[in-house]
Amino acid sequence: MPLIQTAGLxxxxxxxxxxxxxxxxxxxxxxxDDGPRIPCxxxxxxxxxxxxxxxxxxRQLPEGERIDALQAIREDALDGDYGDRVQQFAERREQRVRxxxxxxxxxxxxxxxxxxxxxxxxxxxxxxxxxxxxLAGEYGDRVQQxxxxxxxxxxxxxxx
Length: 160
What we know:
globular; mainly alpha
């Protein structure tokens, strides 16, 4: 699903949890700690209208509720609610994410699992702490490199 086009080890592993790194809505000027994001630019324009509407609605929710809304959108995509093309992309993405998760460092897996068990603002804070730790190198050099690349892409998206 062109919902969130991502690349790299860290991105695929963390976006399954739905909320660390993704683009902003077109024209968004929100800051880096403004919670979960949705695609920008060319990706956004290629999404089905109903998917864009659901993503826009999710963006309007209070920060602590966005993760659940984005997870529901992901499930709808996997169920084919946004069409066959989006469903195929979502299924391929799920397969890649499973493969990537097996490669994540053990401490990152534990932190992600713990964060997933939280809800609302506590979950958002836990994901931010994981993101910050990844950027600081707490999960190793490879995760840090990928986290930095993802951060650069995110900033480029926000600037567009």
